[in-house]
Amino acid sequence: MYKTIKSQVVRLQAITRGFSSALIILIAISGFSQTTNATEEYRVLADDFLSISVFGEPDLSFERIRVGSNGQISLPLIGEVIVSGLKPSEIEEKLETLFLENDYLLNPQVTVFIREYRPIFIYGEVNKPGAYPFSNNLTVEKAIALAGGLAPRASKDKIKLRRKIAGNSEESYTAKMQKLVHPGDVITVGESFF
To answer: What's the whole-model pTM score?
Structure first.
């Protein structure tokens, strides 16, 4: 009876270890997938800076190339390419196709990532209004801190956020201090009358 109980305990421990390992792997994979998806969902717009690498072709690779106000980048051999509104992975595919279709490269392998996001803008009742660099996890509150904090007559209830969305359209709404800011957002802090 003692051997039976001991063998069941050993078997239960082995199952638990296997389950724990599988659970750890599952958590790690799901965390990685969420991070990758969040990055992949970003769509490039004017004033973003890209890094473009063409494997084995240093003359076609660029550390920092700006997306123009027309939504295009200019590259040797293929010229002007519209990238505005595309994800980095979609830009990679587009460039690979252009290099291949025009018989410039036999097996193009292109990597694109965001080198620098377009700036955010903060106006109104802040101490230092202007353009500021975007960084991940930037909230309205942190953006206001970058702008020197709220001016004496600022109202925390009158903070407007304008965000460019698909095409030339924008959305505008009242923002709370913990609202996440996106590249290119325009924050306007209103004045309090009391």
So the answer is: 0.70
pLDDT single digits (tens) 121-155: 999 999 999 999 999 899 999 999 999 999 999 99
Residues 6+ apart with CB under 8 A from 85: 43, 44, 45, 71, 166, 167
| Domain ranges across the chain | 1-41, 49-116, 120-191
The Cα 145–Cα 126 span in angstroms is 9
For 158, the enclosing helix (H) or strand (E) is strand 154-164
The helix (run of H) or strand (run of E) holding residue 190 is strand 186-191
Rounded Cα gap, residues 113 and 87, in angstroms: 9
Is domain 120-191 classified as CATH 3.40.30.10?
A: no
CATH number of 49-116: 3.30.1950.10
